[in-house]
Amino acid sequence: MSATLSVVIAARNCADRLEATVQPWRPIAHEIIVADQMSFDQTPDLAQKLGCRLIRNDPPGGNFDLNRKLAMEQATSEWILYIDTDERPTAELLSEIRRFLALTPGPASPDGVRIPNMFYFLGRP
Question: Which pLDDT belongs to residue 39?
Fold first, then answer.
């Protein structure tokens, strides 16, 4: 049996990009949690429409990490992946995560995984 994955998305006023963030994870995520920092656009409504679990919080000082921690505490999967709304996985990454989930849990399962990323600025790496 494969391990399960909760994807936690930190969000604030990102309705224009939320669907593009959520869709690639649907096939492999057990649950997708949107940790919303009191958006005043359509982000909360869209998150629910997309079938995500919505957690809304207004942390002191606008601290996104507190929202992520709250979402982590409510996640129900063996593995949790934090992403931002401007991050998109490659097909290769999704395939690798699928393989990883199929191999865990087990006695030799790791405690964590590092995923390399590439930053782009003005459309260039």
Answer: 94
Owner of token pair 């909360």: 44
| Mean pLDDT for the chain overall | 89
Its pTM stands at 0.88
CB 21 within 8 A of CB 85: yes
Given a cut of 80, whether residue 99 has pLDDT beyond it is yes
Domains, the chain, with CATH or none? 5-103 (3.90.550.10)
Task: Return the structure tokens found at 119.
Answer: 């930053």
Three-state SS letters, 97-110? HHHHHHHCCCCCCC
- Tell me how far apart the alpha carbons of residues 83 and 11 are, in angstroms, rounded to a whole number: 9
CB atoms within 10 A of CB 123: 5
Out of 69-73, 74-78, 108-112, least confident range: 108-112
CB atoms within 10 A of CB 3: 16
Rg of the chain over Cα atoms, rounded to whole angstroms, equals 15
